[in-house]
Amino acid sequence: MASYASVASEVGGRLRNGICASVVRIRRQAVHRTPRPWLGLIGLGLAASAALLINDPFLMPALAVCAWWWSPRVWFAWLMPLGAGALTVTWATVGAGLIAILPLPTAGLLWISTAAVIALTGTALRILLHERPR
Rounded distance, CA 121 to CA 39, Å? Predict the structure, then answer.
């Protein structure tokens, strides 16, 4: 009959080998992962905004890993969907606050004109920096 120590060391060795094999497999997949830009940038931006709107911050680390996995291979691309989610939540909160304190036409005008100012500023910066919009 085998002693507890020998069984424990055998199980520990198998567990260690299994973990090492899993880490090697994950590293190999991370190097050769396929970017999915629509899922990584659009889908995760929507998921991040939903997670923040329902006030569940525990989803954000998992969404950050998914964003890193599916986003294009630019070093900052995985941050874009998380920032877009935060911007969406800010946008919704400001809009709801404006509607609550102002008459509806004034609140709508202020809310939409902010989007127009942001879009025009981005266009002006592209023109000034001599970058062509795609």
Answer: 27
For the entire predicted model, the pTM comes to 0.63
Q: What is the pLDDT of residues 86-129, one digit of tens each?
A: 988 988 888 888 888 888 888 888 888 888 898 899 889 888 88
Q: What is the DSSP string of 57-95?
A: TTHHHHHHHHHHHHS-SSTTTTHHHHHHHHHHHHHHHHH
> Left if phi > 0, otherwise alpha if psi is -120 to 50, otherwise beta: which for 102?
beta
Q: Which two tokens stand for residue 88?
A: 């969406």
The kind and range of the H/E element at 15 are helix 4-31
CB atoms < 10 A from the CB of 50, how many? Answer: 15
Give the Cα separation of 87 and 105 in Å (integer).
23
The shares of helix, strand and coil residues in the chain, as percent rounded to the nearest 5, are 80, 0, 20
Distance between CA atoms of residues 107 and 100, nearest Å: 9
